[in-house]
Specification:
Keywords: FAD, Flavoprotein, Oxidoreductase, Signal. This is FAD dependent oxidoreductase domain-containing protein. Belongs to the DAMOX/DASOX family. This protein is an alpha/beta fold. It has a single domain, classed as Rossmann fold, CATH 3.40.50.720. Helix content is about 30%, strand content about 25%. It has 10 helices and 15 strands. The strands form 2 sheets. Strands 3, 4, 5, 8, 9, 10, 11, 12 and 13 form a 9-stranded mixed sheet that branches. Strands 6-2-1-7-15-14 form a 6-stranded mixed sheet, covered by helices on one side. The two termini are about 40 Å apart. The model has no long low-confidence stretch (mean pLDDT about 95). The structure holds flavin-adenine dinucleotide. The site of flavin-adenine dinucleotide has 40 residues, from helix 1, strand 2, helix 2, strand 8 and strand 13.
């Protein structure tokens, strides 16, 4: 008899990268991804992976070696992929400029990127910049990258199912779920983002909360470099106020953003969208269409409004203490948790997936 199936719960960037690494490690394993949301779905605030910018811009504290390792391993995997296949899976390599108001130093992790340079803040496009660096990084078009991950899972023999899971024991007892994969699973990877709060023990559930993010997406294919301004301290995570301009290989540019702890409002607020446009023009004047660059402030704003494609809102799956990548035993099944990545799920996905699969295989995650 073949070994029992393995279930990956969740089809965001975390679940899909975990499934890919699992199938690569054990090509004979029968892997089933079970999720409410699948990559081809319409944008949904509760499906964070589809709303993300997404750029690779670590905010790992200098002393947070675990997060730094996840982020830089992920950069290595993505950069290698971009060198091999170009922009076909949604990746774009670019010069990223990071500006600070009120700080005089940068995160050490940026020095690990290619082409790292400290720039003269006097050359910043906006006022009050006290420190500025640039380096090579990547952006990701989520819809393209999730679709490419879905194809990789399928080509490795994994299967995707749309289903809601009410509890971890239900994966072994609910007839409707068992009908998807035949027998109780030997292992479950919990990659359910914010949904994990309904599946884990109460103390763990209490540690999870949404950090709302609102963005404006514009059509501006002439912008091919990334710009970010940080005002106030990150505080080891995502503190302060951050403005970003994230071009994608598709010609869309994501302007952001907000970080609203505990806010479940799923729709865009008009005043917030207006503020985002103002901040984006401040840090990247080239976001304004070329024909309107010499216009007055009102003319530039109107020209920028004319290229808005959509507003979007998403809930980052934030967890007090950072992501949970850990192994446990629930009932008869081996459970590996890989959730709670806050605003860093894209830039840490491959590093976390490799740790999660290593934990399942019996290894110990490295610091
Ligand atoms: C505005 C915004 C900008 C961001 N920008 C960046 C960025 O630039 N860089 C970066 O690294 N990160 C960014 N992030 C964060 C990033 O999007 C998340 O960290 C990441 O998407 C989390 O992925 P995930 O797979 O854990 O969760 P999700 O993408 O939310 O996926 C969760 C999956 O679990 C399934 N699920 C949950 N509960 C159940 C259940 N009970 N039964 C069945 N299925 C279930 C869902 O259906 C879904 O398939 C941003 C987020 C937002 C909102």
């Amino acid at each position: 008899m073949p070994p029992p199936p393995i279930v990956v719960l969740g089809a965001g960037v975390i679940g899909l990268t975990t499934a890919v690494r699992l199938l690569e490690a054990r090509p004979d394993a029968e892997v089933h991804i079970v999720a409410d949301h699948l990559p081809s779905d319409a944008l949904d605030a509760h499906y964070a992976s589809t709303i993300a910018g997404a750029h690779h811009l670590s905010f790992a504290d200098d002393k947070d070696l675990r997060q730094r390792r996840w982020d830089m391993r992920t950069f290595e995997v993505l950069y290698d992929e971009w060198r091999r296949v170009g922009e076909s899976t949604g990746l774009m390599a670019l010069t990223q400029t990071e500006m600070w108001e009120g700080a005089s130093s940068h995160l050490e992790v940026y020095e690990q990127h290619p082409d790292f340079r400290v720039l003269d803040p006097a050359d910043a496009p906006c006022a009050n910049i006290s420190h500025m660096v640039s380096f090579t990084s990547l952006t990701i078009a989520p819809a393209l990258y999730l679709a490419s991950l879905e194809r990789r899972v399928a080509s490795l023999g994994g299967r995707l199912h749309r289903a809601h899971v009410t509890s971890l024991p239900a994966l072994s007892s609910d007839p409707a779920l068992l009908a998807l994969y035949g027998r109780p699973p030997s292992a479950v990877f919990v990659c359910a983002g914010l949904g994990a709060r309904h599946l884990v023990e109460p103390a763990e559930a209490a540690a999870l909360s949404p950090t709302r993010g609102q963005v404006v997406v514009v059509a501006a294919p002439w912008v091919r470099s990334g710009h970010t301004r940080q005002v106030g301290a990150l505080g080891g995570s995502e503190g302060g106020t951050r403005t970003y301009v994230i071009p994608r290989c598709t010609g869309e540019v994501v302007l952001g953003g907000t970080m609203e702890a505990g806010d479940w409002a799923p729709y865009a607020r008009e005043a917030t969208a207006d503020d985002i446009l103002t901040r984006a023009m401040d840090i990247c004047p080239a976001i304004v269409p070329p024909h309107a660059r010499d216009a007055g402030a009102d003319g530039r704003r109107e020209a920028l409004r004319a290229i808005v494609l959509r507003d979007a809102v998403g809930f980052r799956p934030s967890r007090a203490g950072g992501a949970r990548v850990a192994r446990a035993r629930v009932g008869g099944a081996s459970v590996v948790y890989n959730y709670g990545h806050g605003g860093a799920g894209w830039q840490s996905c491959w590093g976390c997936a490799e740790d999660a699969v290593g934990l399942w295989a019996g290894g110990v995650a490295r610091l």
